[in-house]
Amino acid sequence: MGAFVPATMAASWLDIGDPLDDLDFMVILVGGFWLAGRVVWSRNRLVDRLADQSEELRRSRESEAQARAAEQRARIGRDVHDVVAHSVTLMVVQAEAGEAQLEPDHPSAECLRTIQRVGRSTLVELRGVLGGLGEEATPSLPERTGGPGLRDADRLATDLTEAGLDLVLRVDAGAADLPPEVDLAAYRILQEALTNALRHSPRAHVDARVQITPDGVVVDVTDDGAGVQATSRPSSGRGLAGMRERALARGGDITTGPVGTGFTVRAHLPLQARTEAVR
């Protein structure tokens, strides 16, 4: 702009002799350029301010949503702690009191010890769940590193066998090297499949196998039905849906259905999560 005005005045002087004769034109021309620049600058500042306000509003909404979610998680954690943890703790204490009144070799003593063991294990797992919810007021429990996994499969099999399930379980070596998320998902699917077998066909013989493959884990649970028609079992429910959700969350797949008079559950969980449809 500084070079343009003198150049324009020089050209005017060469053309008409006196550049001052066009001074009003020069003022209007320069003022017009200045005004246009000012308008563009003001508009850009307004756009920047609106963008900053929009970003601030977005961050504020996200913060409010996170605060509401945290509050809801804390409320759920408190409810679980106050209701479930209290009830399970009471069950364990009552089982301990009942066992203390029996002879060590009494037929009911082992049942009470099983109740205590399962109750304490449930409270330990509950601590992990409440910790994930951000709940600090968890029950006073013995410390344990990590959540449940396939390393607990033998104990799970013992509990179910004592509950009356005719079970043969095999777990391949190498389960301890699985990623924690895969380990937990495989254990929960195995746990739910075996529990379903006990619930729907308590007299069945169950063969369960956990295979560790180069690319993942295969959980295979099949029962012979023990005379119970598998087609009479519910084809859908919270248990089956939960297993499907766990498999899908890890990018795996699962098939369930009747086999003769029995029922089978077969799940594959890859080591690396991928997105696939659940069959």
From TrEMBL:
The keyword Glycoprotein does not apply. Signal peptide: none annotated. Its EC number is 2.7.13.3. Keywords: ATP-binding, Kinase, Nucleotide-binding, Phosphoprotein, Transferase, Two-component regulatory system. It comes from the Bacteria. Residues 188-273 form the Histidine kinase domain. Coiled coil: none annotated. It is an enzyme of class 2 (transferase). One of its GO terms (cellular component) is membrane. It catalyses: ATP + protein L-histidine = ADP + protein N-phospho-L-histidine. InterPro entries: HATPase_C_sf (IPR036890), HATPase_dom (IPR003594), His_kinase_dom (IPR005467), Sensor_HK_TwoCompSys (IPR050482), Sig_transdc_His_kin_sub3_dim/P (IPR011712). GO terms for molecular function: ATP binding; phosphorelay sensor kinase activity; protein dimerization activity. SUPFAM superfamilies: ATPase domain of HSP90 chaperone/DNA topoisomerase II/histidine kinase. This is histidine kinase.
